[in-house]
Structure formats: structure tokens, C-alpha cells
Amino acid sequence: MILSDNETKVDLLNNEPIAKTIVALVRKHSDHPITIGVHGDWGAGKSSILEMIEASLEGEDRVLCLKFNGWRFQGFEDAKIALIEGIVTGLLEKRPFLTKASSAVKDVFHRIDLLKLAKRTGGLVTAAVGFYTGHHQFGVLGLVNSLEGTLADPANFTKEKISSILEGAKDLLKEKDEESVSNVPEEIAEFRKAFDKLLEEAKVDQLIVLVDDLDRCLPETAIETLEAIRLFVFTSRTAFVVAADEAMIEYSVRKHFPDLPDSTGPQTYARNYLEKLIQVPFRIPALGQTETRIYVTLLLVGAELGEGDAAFDELIKVARGLLTRPWLGNVLDAASTKSALGPKEKSAHNALMISDQVGPLLANGARGNPRQIKRFLNTLLLRQASAEARGFGDDVKLPVLAKLMLAERFNNRVFDQIAIAAASAPDGVCADLAALEATAEKKTSESASQPAKEGPSVKKSPTKAEALTTDSETSAVLAEWLASPSTLDWARLKPPLAKIDLRPYLFVTKDRKDFFGAATAFGQVAAIAERLLGVRLAVQAEEVNLRGLAPPEAAQVFEMLRTRIIASDSFERAPDGVAGVEVLVRAQPSLQSNLLDFLEALPANRLGPWVCSGWANALKDPSAVKRFEQMLEVWSKHGGQLLKAAATNTLRTRTQGGR
Asked: What architecture is the 1-98+202-285 domain classified under in CATH?
């Protein structure tokens, strides 16, 4: 089962009210030009809303709705002209009684030719046209600009080339007198008049253009398309509905106009540019937990029955009724699906189960983005199908796989740490994960049992200092995870994974990374990690070999060492493996942040003075050095007396010795 990621006219997100509101607004102002923005992140459903708008306008004879996809014209020489020509060509296709021989059609295409010509003011064509039409000032300017480039290679400046240019200019201008070529503003005004006349001849009371995928375009293409839209802004009876992510358009503006100041008053120039063009913005809201669960159910039932199925249409109606008041938390359940689907209700059993299991997880992890939800579900179902095809489908439960995949997708570092530990364990259980879930659950219970305080409460995440000064019962890896609010939130999700053999689940994620080769068979990477647990002199001899490791292998060796060091749970003296970590990071500078994350997570009240020195050859990047000094500051104020004294002394020495 694969869920389609294409735009659709079938509304599973209850976005139809947005489409209806936009249509009503456009039709209300049919005599005046209007531009409307449909904004949202990639995958939020912008294209589907445009499909709904187009579908709702199909029955209106005097309204012409056209679609333009900027991404499809990516790479064209002039995206601005591509939009203009696309609109005119689309109009002729929808109004076949118009012919290219009509005066209005000929005039519009002629004006487009002149706009093309006007854009080449720096070329020989413009110079030739200027002299040919009698606009000598226009022609001289073009000739001067063109000579600057052409005389760099005099061989190109030939009589034949000039003659060819003149003939081309005559072809474009043969139907107009010498007053036809003027400056660009005049040509734009004339084009608007010609286009308005064409709309009258085409019997179009209102032209609505739906512009999609601008946020996928390169900045140059996006800006040229917006500039073309601006050309129509003062043309009566035209409306543009532009679907785009505002952040991407603002990025395009900044890239296209790099010399603009960052801001003007309370807003950026990029935001002002967008707001002057888009008169009415609509932003698609993210899905909440209720909407996500309903959306997951509809996606899976629709994939099973088909979007044209009458029973599925009834289920959509029931879902829309629930979505009118999502704050009530009512979702599609067995009773409502049975009532809507009738004899086909068995098709919804699996969908309801998956929705109940992964809906809450996806609402948090995917942050309400429909495309991310679809892709997550596709990967989830494909991996389960792969496990069944390989013969161990009974060992892979969807809720467990879904929770692990959420960490894989949205908290990759934690997933890697869990995977390496579980793949190395004889029973496939990650001990640190058990401690994390237990502590997260304990904190949740304690928070729920505390009496309410007056005034608004603010949920505070643990600070770095709090993570470093955690109590002695808390392991070092738990302190690292507890410092991350997102990791705590993930750990609270059901089902708990503490006592589950995770190896079957990690095996079906091998499409991204294989955690088994070195971890279970003690292959090359595991052997290297083992050697780095030796004495300093022996470890230093490994530096040459460590430089030859690929970055993923080096990262895996680091995680193995980190796991072994933390498992010792003794930090008063330098544990075995610390020397290996220092040599590894020295040989692989990209691991400096990994080293700092590791040191920062160690319990300060159980740390010996060894942690304050010995890293000078490993930490070279200025940002890494600065971060280490900040850690020294924390250690100089928190922890045991020996650690405080060592950190203070190290800071003083680095200051006096220029580091």
C-alpha cells in the first residue's frame, strides 16, 4: 500500500473552507484586480487548495481559471515572459472560438514581442530597433551598451550579423509604425490595454490565475514570476492566487536583491516586497492531534477503497463533521466508520488500529505537516511489509516501529545512540533507554501530582548546569538526554521500549544505516574501538589508522567508546577509553562537537579533575574552544572541590598563556 503524495481535489484535511473563502473573495471583487496568497510550509496542502479552487469554478462560463506552475518553467530564458505567454495561450485554448487572426489576439502577441524586445535594451537588437524606428536615443544607448561586449571580440561584429539583426527587428515591427517601440513603462501600459480588450473579445468577465510551486523555484525564477504578476496587478478583471511558502519567497528576494538593507522599521524589506504584491494572505494551519488521527484514518481507508468509492465519500462526510470542532477531540472510531462504510467497514480495521497507535506520535513528531505524515506512513508500512516478506513480521509491531522511526526522523542522534547500544546488547535491549523512559515517566507523575500554583505556569527544560549537576543515581547518558526537552517528550510516548528486543526493528531500518556488522560481529570498526580502550602509548600509535576512517565509521567508533566509558559509571579518575577519544577526535576533527556533547553530559558532582585538561590537541576550532571554556566556567562553580579547583586553575592558565 502506497499513499500518493500528489495534490488532490479530495479534501481530507478540511481545507475546503479555505478554498471556498478564497473563491468568494475573488468573485466579490471581480471588477478589480486582486492578488491572494496561500501560504504554508512545504507539504501543507497548498497545491490541493488550488485544485479545489479550480474545481469550484468549473461551472462558471464567464469566469476563466488558468493554472501556472513556475517550477515547470525552471531554466527557461525568461520566466516573466513564460508566465505572460502562458496566460494568453491558456486563454486561447479555453476559448477556441478566438483565432490568432483576430485583431485583439494579434495585438496582444505583438505587445508581448515588444516586451521581449524592450528587455534586451543592452543588446544589438535594441540598438538596431532604435535606429530603424527613429528612436535614436533608445538605439544609441543600446548600441553603446552592446559595443562594450561585442568589441571584446571584433570578429563577431560583422556586416552579416548587423543585417540579420535589422531583419529580425523589421519582422517584429512590420505591423506597427515607428511609434510602436517606446520605453518599457509605456509598453506595459499598452499591453494592459490590449489584454483587457482580449478579455472582452473572449467574453471573460474575470480571469483567475492559480500560480503554484514558486517556493520550489530558484530565486531568479521566483522573482521574475512575481514581477510578471505585478504586470497584471492593475489590469481589471484579473485575480491571482499564489501558493508559496513565505519564508522561501523572502529568501528569494534577499538573494535577488542582495544590496537591500536588512529591515525597514519593524519589518524586513523582503517581507514588505511580498506584502505589497499579496493583498490578502491565507496561511494553512498545522494539523493538531485530532486532525492528524482523522487524516491518518482517511488516508489508509482511501488507499484501501479508492478515492472514488461511495462508502469512502460517506466516511469523509463524517470526518468533516468531526473536524468542524476539533477542540472536542472526537476522532473516527469503530462505530462511526461502521455507520459510514457499512459492509466495507472491515477495510477500516487496520486503518483505525494504525491511527490509534501512531496518530499521537505523528501529531508531535511531524508537527502537523501532511506531507511528512504521508511519507512517514509510507515508510512505516513498507518496512513492516519488508519484515513480513523476510519472515519475521510477527516480531515487528507497528507502535514500536513507529516510535523508533519518530526518533530516527526527528531526533537522529538519540536514535543512533539507542541503535548502537541495542545492536551490541546480547538481548537487544538498550539499558540507557530503560532509565530514560522510567525517569521521564517519574517526572511526568511528579508534575501531575504537584498542586496548581497561582498565575500562569511555565514549563522549564533542564539547563546545562542542571544537567551537569544531576544526582549520583542518574547515569551520565541519562543526564545528556534529560537536557533535551524533545528527547523527554519522545520518551513519554507510548508504548515504552525499555524491555523490548529492538534488533528486529533496527534490521528493517538498514535502508538508512547498518548497525549490526561491526556491533554484533566485532568487525573492523569494533576492533578499532577495542584497541582505543588501551593505555595512552598504545592508543597514540593508532592515530594514522584513525585518519583513514570514513566519517560514518569514525562516528560509530566514537559512540562505541562513549558507551563503554559511561557504562563504567566511574568518573573520579579518567576512565579507560578517554585517551582513545582524545586521539580519535584529534585524527577526526569533525567529531569535536561530539566530544563536547559527551563531556557536557558527564555528572559534575562525580567528576575528577582529569576532565579539565588534555584536550588542547583535539579541540582546535574557535567555536569548540569557546564552548569548552564555557564548560570550564560551569565546572568552576558546580561539582566537587577538586573539579572546581582544576577548572578554575585551567581557566587561569589558558588566560595567562593565551590558550
From this structure: 3-Layer(aba) Sandwich (3.40)
